[in-house]
Amino acid sequence: MANINFSSRVGVWWTSDRWPINDVVARAREIENLGYASLFYGEAGGKETFTQAAALLGGTERLVVGTGIANIHARSAPASEAGARTLGALHPGRFVLGLGVSHAPLVEHSYAGSYSKPLATMREYLRTMDAVPDAVEPDGPRPARLLAALGPKMIELSGKAADGAHPYLVTPEQTASTREQLGPDKWVVSEQGVALTTDRETGLRRAHQHLHMYSQLPNYRNSWLRQGFDESDVVVGGSDRLAEAMVAMGDAETVAARVRAQLDAGADQVVVQVLGDDPSADPLPALRELAPALGLPTS
């Protein structure tokens, strides 16, 4: 299993595309100082993921930086492998390459690609990455490679052809299922949405806003149905039942309890995604409040 130097078991997931990169790096430094071990972020037409990783790694000392996920339709497999190996050589144990097949609307409209046979596409992409010669970065270890794996076949592939999985929008029970399928020797880094508020109406509003886009994507709808929800839950924006299952709402101790539930279910690292009234809101106020409840080792 490829090495990842997590300093604690909790990290952060943050969509920072609307922020200037210098401000993102400054906040990454504080995230690191608060004791969070990692910073993961998505790729959906905003900042280029490897460039952002380089900036974040160069601007911090211990923080693990992960792509959550790098869209395989955005660049060739050799380009992904070469970029990952270079970052891994510069920052050993601190870069995680999360890869995903993305979603048909984004792939077909934004990248003018084809979304047919996503499992086979990912399998071939990984094979091509593996074929890149060591000479591209002879002294650098290959960094950990995780797959955005929701269904059983993609989870299986994340165990056979990668170093583990990066589940997103899943219950602790699904994290446990992923861990059981992968066994003890693969990484599981689970995302957990959080709404740090004691007002249930506010928490639900933030959760429904967060789920609005995902509830219109077949990959997530099918994932939720496999997790035990039904068609009445996977309406646009999600039902209240789905919202409360996907997003931890309440005070810091209540939210921390959900994070611990994900860890107890088998996650090696839980990355918390702070939800505010504005999707581009600064996550730091909530992360500051949450850190003591999580018992993070501040510097």
Automatic annotation (TrEMBL):
Chain coiled-coil ranges: none
Domain Luciferase-like: 8-268
Annotated protein name in UniProt: LLM class F420-dependent oxidoreductase
Top-rank taxon, per record: Bacteria
One Pfam family linked to the record: Bac_luciferase
